[in-house]
Amino acid sequence: MKKKFKRVFAVIIAAIMLSCGISAYADSMVVVNCNEWVSLRSYPSTSAERLTTVPLGARVESIGWQNGFNQVIYNGQVGWVLTSYLSYWR
Hints:
Elements: H1 2-19, E1 27-31, E2 37-41, E3 50-55, E4 59-66, E5 69-74, E6 77-82, E7 86-88
Antiparallel strand pairs: 1-4, 1-7, 2-3, 4-5, 5-6
């Protein structure tokens, strides 16, 4: 139940941010340094559940970082991607 609440809360926050044109604190980034895709994780760990995959070259909005991961919004979904797979969008 707690896990479901956290997901619902994250989606609500993401929806609010997207409807407001993304907060000034978000950074546009792009997926790099991979062959095809990277995992969007439920929390900042390589052992966390994979929520979906994010393809090479996809743009994401970074809204935070922790332990070598960036918290991002991708297609309305909030999750975590290893920072080494992201670069700032130019």
